[in-house]
Amino acid sequence: MGSAEIQGDLWGRAAKDWAGMQEGMHAPLWEAMLDTTGVGAGTTVLDAGCGGGGASVLAASRGAVVSGLDACEPLVDVARDRVPRADFRVGELEALPFADGSFDAVIAASSIQYAEDRVAALRELSRVAKVGARVSVGLFGTADKVDLGAVFAAVRDALPSPPPGAGPFGLSGPGVLEGLIEEAGMNVIAVGEASCPMAFADFDTFWRAFISGGPMQATLEVVGEDDLRAAVAPAVESYRTENGSIRFENVFLHVTAQPTA
Questions:
Q1: Is residue 101 classed as helix, strand or coil in its secondary structure?
Q2: What would the mean pLDDT of 131-145 be, rounded to a whole number?
Q3: Distances 11 to 22, 35, 68 between C-alpha atoms, Å
Q4: Domains within the chain, CATH numbers bracketed
């Protein structure tokens, strides 16, 4: 089973909750990435790992000609409903179904980390970009800048053994993502940050949104929902506001590059 098939299944289990409750809180990151890649009227742009199409909606509102790809067909269906004129496809980041040099701009927001072969996925982003086009890759900043990190730590501690891989911040350290991008044959031209606060009316709302993502769906296969909820609740309580809502401050990293050829 390939990474797209695995991720497609996990993210499809609560796709509507993810698209409707959680995904939109990444909008400041998307706007920053669209800015740094110069997306505007008439720009052909690929949203690689488009999810429910949140970034694609913003690109289309700028007058861009939008294409998108995601491993999760239910999320792609949401994206198609949101941006009917866009070209959305289901597939692998490591094997994009688009011709060489197709796009004026390419963005990959919170998706590269889920590819089994990240360098291969980055090479694909470079391949489908036109000469002189910009490619932007975004993901969590370092753990000290992401309040949700405390919740992720509680999830990790609830697991019977550490999960494989480097976790949600594995590509966030200084120079790590930039190094992979350069290995994939692109020149890094800019590094930036975007603040993406995430607010929820109460714990139940937070919980429904939080477990909708693919990694949490995988965790629920190992830890029962009641047990996981009990493990996470104390960490969440630290971020409750005076009016009873829950708010996390999170900084995301975005790196902009250009193909070398």
A1: coil
A2: 97
A3: 12, 27, 16
A4: 3-147+165-199+249-259 (3.40.50.150)
